[in-house]
Amino acid sequence: MNTTCPYCGVGCGVSVRADGAVTGDASHPANLGRLCVKGAALGETLHASGRLLWAQVDGERVSLDAALESAAVRLRAIIDRHGPEAVAIYASGQLLTEDYYVANKLMKGYLGAANIDTNSRLCMASAVVGYKRAFGADAVPCCYEDFAEADLVVLAGSNAAWTHPVAYQRLVQAKQQRPAMRVVVIDPRRTASVDLADLHLPLRPGSDGALFSGLLNWLAQHDAIDSEMLPHLNGVAETLEAARPWTLARAADACALDRDQLAQFYQLFTGSDRVLTLWCMGINQSASGSDHNNAILNAHLLSGKLGRAGCGPFSLTGQPNAMGGREVGGLANQLAAHMGFSDAECDRLQRFWGSPTVARRPGLTAVALFEAVARGEVKAVWILGTNPAVSMPEGNRVAQALAACPLVIVSDVMAHTDTTAFADILLPALGWGEKNGTVTNSERRISRQRAFAPPPGEAKPDWWLLAQVAQRLGFGDAFGWQHPAEIFREHAALSGFENQGQRAFDISGLAQLSNEAWDRLKPVQWPVNARFPQGCARLFGDRRFFHADGKARLLPCAAPLDDPTSEAYPLLMNSGRIRDQWHTMTRTGNVPRLMQHIDEPFIALHPATARSRGLVSGELARVQSTHGWMIGRVRFDSGMRLNELFAPMHWNRQFALQSNVDALVTARCCPASGQPALKQTAVRIQPLRTGWQGWLWQREVAAPSGLRYWARAPQSGAQRLTLAGDGNASDWAQAQLATQGMQLQQAQGAAGEYRLLAWRAGELQLAFYAAPRLPLLDHELIAAAFRAPPADAAGRFALLAGRAAQGNSAGRIICSCFGVGETAIRQAVAQGCDSPAALGVALKCGTSCGSCLPELKLLLSTPATA
Ligand SMILES: Nc1nc2c(c(=O)[nH]1)N[C@H]1C(S)=C(S)[C@@H](COP(=O)(O)OP(=O)(O)OC[C@H]3O[C@@H](n4cnc5c(=O)[nH]c(N)nc54)[C@H](O)[C@@H]3O)O[C@H]1N2
Ligand SMILES: Nc1nc2c(c(=O)[nH]1)N[C@H]1C(S)=C(S)[C@@H](COP(=O)(O)OP(=O)(O)OC[C@H]3O[C@@H](n4cnc5c(=O)[nH]c(N)nc54)[C@H](O)[C@@H]3O)O[C@H]1N2
Ligand code: SF4
Ligand SMILES: [Mo]
Questions:
Q1: Which UniProt keywords apply (predicted)?
Q2: Is the CB of 582 under 6 A from ligand 3?
């Protein structure tokens, strides 16, 4: 059975065998058989515990029917009293297109308000504004095949090696085949993606507008304007005028970059015929993210570097169906099928749907939506496929808003998330492998996600849950589908409805698919219509754009440098992703293999910045902003700029006591897109001093109390927590650990060390190791004891010591595919392996998904004392 990976926007094809084994689908054009470690571990997420299997109302399990009835009755009561504007939907780029279409139709077409927004507001909103302003349509012109043909690839604000790993591997392969290809990475941090770069520009955060304005000016000064492009452009004169002050010197100053390095980039851009710029959250999640997008688009348009093979401005989408959400109008400021809120468009939609009403003005965007919830203006919110209590900025305010909101409906696949904790009504949704529909990836390619596993409990598809509530609200006829293919046909027909080529998104060629043909649908890139019956790889080769006059538009970029830091909060905190976790960890966090690479929330910073604040590598620190605080473990990273921090966005209350980054991040937004500047928050940091630190191994997921800090990392057979507390570790253990009826084995050291094993019927139930500083242990030994207890007293004694009589621990796992740790890699290097390829032969590391290759290289180049 072939399906599509549910994680990132690369949109890899996945083959699932009858026994559940997951491999890359060699026939899928997005990945040609490759998978990254998250995709390869999909099989391990399928039988995860913690699923939401049954509906709940006010904390009580009820039948799904009763929950749907409650949802409809309570929504109706709020609408009758306060009008449709008091209701909102907050959706997700992880919904299938069919689900998303239904959510949007219900809100905008039948409830009649436009308060449906999505987590794509935090992700792609600035890119949407950029493309619409430049091209007159939200249309990404490029395709992955361009990777193989570019002369220069620019990665701007993208750590694709970790976040779009299969796309990045295609770049690696392209550079191997054509060593003349150049790669430039624009990122304040030296990330894993810099591994491929010929040039890394560690710019000042938020200065991308200046960098690309400088490029535009350089193009004008160096005779690099494509004169054949000029008749197809508006706004050239004023945009060039606005860019004129951005000389090389001024741009380099603004970006805090070396002039020669910046000039090298400008020369490469100017001198390369085929330039592909890939960008992601470093560009979009900024207070002027939309302008940064247009600054990139300006440079490509003016130099004519688009619409050809190997060329173009390519915004990478984050989520598997971020693009699909844009197509169906998931954003509050768009209608379905790429339509806006003009009277003509609203009328057209109402005609097509035959609906009683259509929203006539844009609704609330994500940040504003939760503010309206907090003020009590929005009284009901239905959250689907996203976890805003973790992922929204000013998280404490979002949590307060949800706590105060009279009606919170949450559809999710997991029972316990930071958001489901606030639900009045919980609806169990089908997850990956169980649900059926389509997604659109970064290159506009529509692929099928197919069901191959039976529905667990009473879980249902998201579209079905929405349609059921719509029917109970009295909109039966318009929501009467029996099969997702029917929804797809409606969506495809709408895209072609009264569309004489004015709307880029047109898949009218798929509007007649039978259910069987929809089921078999092969991956295809939109548009799919009479002109492009087989789909279309690249847009704008004909230089016809979607503004009314057919031209594209250059836009002056204000390029303001905003610096939120102050005396009280002098450091700038950046946030983003790590290689093996997906967002709020609801699925990846439960897979032991994916917890091996990085198993704790951390705060990375330059050693000099750390030392100046009394921070020690491997110790805990507390980071504080105007809005909240978090704890993480200090990581020295000489690839960070001075006075900046980086913290992963993933950890939340299910996995740690107090490590939610978005508790700190402020909701400063780009005025044009409403996208928050999630990458730039002013903070201060200080060491967190505690009486003791330790490790607790237990069988259940239960959260401990009475601590300053804990973080949980599932292992196979047990849950492992890192702890820190005040007072005395043995006192804490006696007061807090439930060991009644168990046999205890304890040891107390002179220097405040304390160890405890608890046994029941010969089975290890709990292991606790504490000391003033985090003790070093043989984790593999302890994990193994939970699967099979040691055979003899010597083994139990070694277990209490936390160390095998002999032998070494694996160290930090570097290659998650084959479970190869730092210790083995160091040994192999000592024995003569001098390249990643040699390590691959000796240990297999790096030979599957390749995501660990940058780290292997780093280990090869750094001495073992590091
Ligand atoms: N492993 C993994 N992969 C994922 C995801 C995941 O959760 N885990 N999520 C998916 C989703 S939804 C998304 S949106 C993508 C995100 O993919 P990316 O955008 O590649 O990932 P991030 O880590 O959020 O941020 C990218 C980089 O932006 C840099 N940056 C910060 N500030 C600036 C700046 O001012 N200018 C520039 N030029 N760069 C800056 C950061 O240092 C960081 O390295 O990843 C997708 N893929
Ligand atoms: N500080 C900071 N914050 C960020 C970011 C950042 O870089 N820095 N990045 C932002 C970006 S780009 C994004 S995209 C967001 C992501 O943030 P979220 O969307 O909040 O994160 P997820 O963990 O992907 O949430 C998905 C939820 O849907 C559930 N789910 C999974 N499958 C299904 C399904 O089929 N149906 C339903 N109904 N539910 C399902 C999951 O269990 C989970 O609870 O975070 C944003 N927040
Ligand atoms: S690159 Fe993205 S789509 Fe492909 S397997 Fe990895 S997470 Fe899935
Ligand atoms: Mo995203």
A1: 4Fe-4S, Iron, Iron-sulfur, Metal-binding, Molybdenum, Nitrate assimilation, Oxidoreductase
A2: no
Instruction: For residue 149, give both structure tokens.
Output: 């043909």
Look at residue 865 and tell me whether its pLDDT is greater than 70: no
Round to whole Å and give the CA distance between 11 and 316.
11
Residue written as token pair 């059926």: 436
What average pLDDT does this structure show over 714-725?
95
Pocket test for ligand 2, best of 391, 463, 582 (most atoms within 8 A of CB): 391
Interval 588-593 mean pLDDT: 92
Cross-strand bridge partners of residue 200: 185
Query: In this structure, which ligand is nearest to the CA of 161?
Result: 1
Residue 678 beta carbon below 6 angstroms from any ligand 1 atom: no
The atom number, within ligand 1, closest to the CA of 680 reads 32
* Rounded average pLDDT over 628-657: 98
Is the Cα dihedral 702, 703, 704, 709 positive or negative? Answer: positive
- Return d(Cα 572, Cα 595) in angstroms, integer: 27
**Structure confidence at residue 803 (pLDDT):** 84
Condensed to tens digits (0 to 9), the pLDDT of residues 3-19 reads: 999 999 999 999 999 88
**Residues with C-beta less than 6 Å from any ligand 2 atom:** 92, 94, 119, 122-123, 281, 285, 318-319, 384-388, 390-391, 411-414, 417, 429, 431, 435, 462, 575-576, 583-584, 586, 649, 661-662, 665, 678
| pLDDT tens by residue, 227-251 | 999 999 999 999 999 999 999 999 9
Residue 561 has pLDDT above 80, yes or no: no
Distance between CA atoms of residues 12 and 4, nearest Å: 6
How far apart CA 505 and CA 140 sit, in angstroms, is: 11
Secondary structure letter of residue 726 according to DSSP: S
Cβ proximity of 53 and 458 under 8 Å: yes
- Residue of 393, 391, 398 lying closest to 665 (CA atoms): 393
Nearest CA to ligand 2 atom 4: 391
**pTM for the structure as a whole:** 0.95
Best substitution site from 186, 577, 678, 852 to test ligand 1's pocket, by max atoms within 8 Å of Cβ? 577
Token output for 411: 């559809």
What digits encode the pLDDT tens for the residues 798-839?
999 998 655 456 677 888 888 888 888 888 888 888 899 999
Hey, what are 486's tokens?
């029917």
Dist CA 224 CA 305 (whole Å) = 11
Residues 306, 540 contacting (CB under 8 angstroms): yes
Task: Report the alpha-carbon distance of residue 555 to residue 550 in Å, rounded.
Answer: 16
Is the alpha carbon torsion for 771, 776, 778, 782 positive or negative?
positive
HSE-up of 809 (CA within 13 Å, CB side)? 15
- Estimate the crossing angle of helix 236-243 against helix 289-302, to 10 degrees: 110
Average pLDDT along the chain:
95
| Pure H helices in 497-576 | 515-520
Report CA-CA distances (Å) from 844 to 495, 821, 848.
48, 11, 8
Which one has a higher pLDDT value, 848 or 333?
333
* Rounded percentage of the chain residues whose pLDDT exceeds 70: 99
Tokens 């240990």 correspond to 843
Tokens 């020669």 correspond to 260
**Is residue 866 scored above 50 in pLDDT?**
no
Q: How far is the CA of 280 from the centre of ligand 4 (A)?
A: 9
Instruction: Give CA angle at 414 (412, 420), nearest 5°.
Output: 65
- 272, 191 in Cβ contact below 8 A? no
Does ligand 1 have an atom closer than 6 angstroms to the CB of 381? no
Average pLDDT over residues 149-167: 98
Which ligand is closest in space to the CA of residue 436? 2
**What was the pLDDT predicted at 643?**
98
93 has pLDDT over 60 = yes
Q: Across residues 655-671, what is the average pLDDT?
A: 97
Q: Tell me the torsion sign for CA atoms 560, 561, 562, 567.
A: negative
Closest ligand 2 atom to residue 411 Cα is 38
